[in-house]
Design a protein that fits this description.
By secondary structure, this protein is mainly beta. It contains one helix and 20 strands.
Length: 265
């Protein structure tokens, strides 16, 4: 009897098992050339600049991006204003930004390019309720850089829909390119037409070819190597094999389009 009581006492005195402690999440650190030889290009590991050979400098944590909608109720065909804000801490681009919206169905809509100073106000015509991603990258980024991302949720307004623009007026993007290979420079040619005729908006000097990684976490904005017109050429050197998503930023466009999928071998 005494032995049984002693065993029970020892069992009760055992500490309650605790779940294993998870290590803290690693903080992503980026590095860049202190002389900005490659513009806004960043690296995930320390090293030396391939241009000037100076030691790469560790960057401070980036600022976070938040989005505020003046009216979060969706009415099809009616522009919804929204504003982007930077957090008070961290670093963020001060030059022009390219801002791209990504719908729940992964359709994309570029919005006008603006300076990076906050707050930034835009308008966009949304096609369906749900959660959208707002992605911003420096317009003059040299190489792939991390995207600044924020979420925008739109609810159904419950009011009659406004007729959308005529789909026949949507620009048709014709893309020509060779087989893409990792670390090999390629020329990408795009032509924009509307109803079989050159698209007037295509003559804008701010038209860009934005390439995202498959998960939209990194991107680069390519500047055309040709003068403004209806056919543009871009130079692109894929940094690695994989899948990329391409978006043509037509200034002030109201058209949502599927991001073109590019495969690099």
């Amino acid at each position: 009897m005494l032995t049984s009581l002693l065993c029970l006492t020892l069992l009760c005195a055992q500490p309650t098992p605790q779940p294993p402690t998870q290590p803290p999440a690693a903080i992503h650190q980026s590095y860049s050339c202190p002389m900005k030889c490659e513009g806004e290009k960043t690296y995930d590991q320390p090293g030396r600049c391939p241009v000037c050979h100076m030691k790469l400098k560790a960057l401070s944590a980036p600022a976070t991006l938040t989005v505020e909608a003046a009216d979060a109720a969706l009415i099809t065909g009616r522009p919804v204003p929204f504003t982007l804000h930077w957090s008070d801490t961290g670093t963020h681009p001060t030059g022009p930004l390219v801002v791209v919206l990504v719908s729940p169905k992964l359709q994309t809509l570029p919005v006008s390019e603006k300076p990076g100073a906050a707050p930034l106000t835009f308008e966009a015509t949304f096609t369906e309720p749900g959660q959208y991603r707002v992605l911003a990258i420096p317009a003059e980024a040299n190489g792939f850089v991390p995207t600044y991302s924020a979420a925008l949720t739109l609810r159904e307004a419950g009011t009659p829909a406004i007729p959308a623009a005529n789909p026949a007026d949507a620009p048709v993007i014709i893309t020509r390119m060779p087989e893409l290979k990792s670390a090999v420079e390629a020329t990408i040619t795009i032509t924009l037409t509307t109803r079989g005729k050159p698209t007037p908006e295509a003559r804008s000097p701010t038209l860009r070819y934005v390439l995202f990684t498959d998960d939209f976490s990194r991107a680069t904005a390519l500047t055309p190597i040709t003068e403004p017109g209806t056919t543009y050429r871009f130079k692109f050197t894929p940094p690695a094999a994989g899948t990329y998503r391409a978006v043509v930023t037509i200034p002030d466009s109201v058209w949502w389009t599927e991001a073109k999928t590019l495969t690099v071998r």
